[in-house]
Design brief:
Layout: H1 26-29, H2 37-68, H3 77-89, H4 92-105, H5 112-136, H6 141-148, H7 153-181, H8 185-190, H9 197-204, H10 212-235
Helix pairs in contact: 2-5, 2-7, 2-9, 3-5, 5-7, 6-7, 7-10
């Protein structure tokens, strides 16, 4: 993809060519000329940021509940654990079709809101699993010491618990962002008139893909790889 972002078009027609026709930087200089690509790119960025923020908060709280409470204290704990596993293991097409059926059943119009809901649905599981792994090795005596010194539950969480599990939270957030910005299958089911970048590329195959798509694709690919590697590096840090 990165190599083809420097490939000349055939006969001066601004369309993707998979045969090497010569080196050019034209597509980087005209990245804003392709209709719809820029708006779809920023839509994907905004969608990923919102979905990451929501799933990080909910996933962290869910992970804490799963670790801190026993089944008799947290009714339905086993069911939620199975749902998280199925959410990660199930093919994306199953989730996309299921969410589409849900939105149609409740007469929810497809658009940006349904995209956010769908992305939160599959991102929250990855955040919860990542943060839960961090909480498993957490030393509860640090919290008990904070309580003994007069700190309340919120202060203890903010000053003791959160800093200790922050690497896991950041790793989960980075993974959620990388998954959200790169998602096509689920987004294709629930996007409606709001088309993220991967969905727009697929739709453009019918009329001809503009070569600037390789520029945006290279940026998204590089960001996704960087976030995935950062997530792995942060997640391996010990408390």
């Amino acid at each position: 993809m990165f190599i083809y972002s420097f490939n000349k078009s055939v006969g001066g027609v601004p369309q993707v060519s998979f045969s090497w026709n010569g080196f050019t930087t034209l597509w980087y200089r005209t990245w804003n000329d392709a209709p719809g690509l820029t708006s779809a790119f920023w839509l994907s960025i905004r969608l990923a940021l919102i979905a990451t923020a929501i799933s990080t908060v909910l996933g962290t709280l869910l992970a804490m509940a799963l670790v801190r409470y026993r089944p008799r204290q947290f009714h339905g704990k086993g069911v939620i654990e199975q749902i998280l596993f199925v959410n990660i293991a199930a093919p994306e097409i199953v989730m996309g079709a299921s969410l589409l059926g849900l939105f149609v059943t409740f007469n929810i119009g497809r658009g940006f809101v349904t995209l956010v809901l769908a992305h939160v649905m599959f991102c929250i599981a990855y955040v919860a699993v990542t943060v839960r792994a961090r909480l498993t090795g957490f030393d509860r005596s640090l919290e008990e010491a904070a309580y003994d010194l007069g700190a309340g539950p919120f202060t203890t969480f903010r000053r003791v618990t959160l800093p200790m599990i922050m690497p896991g939270v950041l790793a989960g957030a980075l993974m959620a962002f990388a998954l959200s910005i790169d998602d096509f299958v689920t987004s294709n089911f629930v996007s409606g008139t709001s088309s993220p970048f991967p969905v727009l590329i697929y739709a453009s195959t019918r009329v001809g893909i503009p070569p600037q798509v390789f520029v945006f694709g290279s940026v998204i690919f590089a960001v996704g790889i960087a976030l995935a590697l950062s997530s792995l590096a942060i997640g391996r840090k010990r408390p």
